[in-house]
Design goal:
about 130 residues, seven-stranded mixed sheet, four-stranded antiparallel sheet, 11 strands, about 45% strand, globular
């Protein structure tokens, strides 16, 4: 099956920047690869529900962002490297969370985490004030 592994999290002061990566490998049961998957980022802080952050189409041409991160975060992908990225700028303490990448064979961009079949283990982002 498809495996996703995040990296790039860490401890950063407010106003700083971070770039998260999500490396993909394997195939779906139908034989589809990374380039056929809608990819997204979600985050979850302790005691809260999982929150949508951003998503990107298979070809990287269309993106979607939560209002809370619009203008500060940039999602991208490199299908040749089977990798998804999240560039995070102007970090705020409220951005502190475990960030997870997710993928799915979908008809379009989705904000509902229940629609994604493949998940990484998550990477911790902590922003100090």
């Amino acid at each position: 099956q498809v495996q996703l592994v995040e990296s790039g999290g860490g401890l950063v002061q407010a106003g700083g920047s971070l770039r998260l990566s999500c490396a993909a490998s394997g195939r779906t049961r139908a034989g589809r690869t990374f380039s056929s998957l809608i990819m997204s980022w979600f985050r979850q802080a302790p005691g809260t529900e999982r929150e949508f952050v951003a998503s990107i189409t298979e070809d990287g041409r269309v993106t979607d962002y939560a209002d809370s991160v619009k203008g500060r975060f940039t999602i991208s992908r490199d299908n040749a490297k089977s990798t998804e990225y999240l560039q995070i700028n102007s970090l705020k303490p409220e951005d502190t969370a475990v960030y997870s990448c997710a993928g799915g064979v979908l008809l379009g961009l989705r904000r509902d985490h229940r629609r994604y079949a493949y998940w990484g283990q998550g990477t911790q982002v902590t922003v100090s004030s």
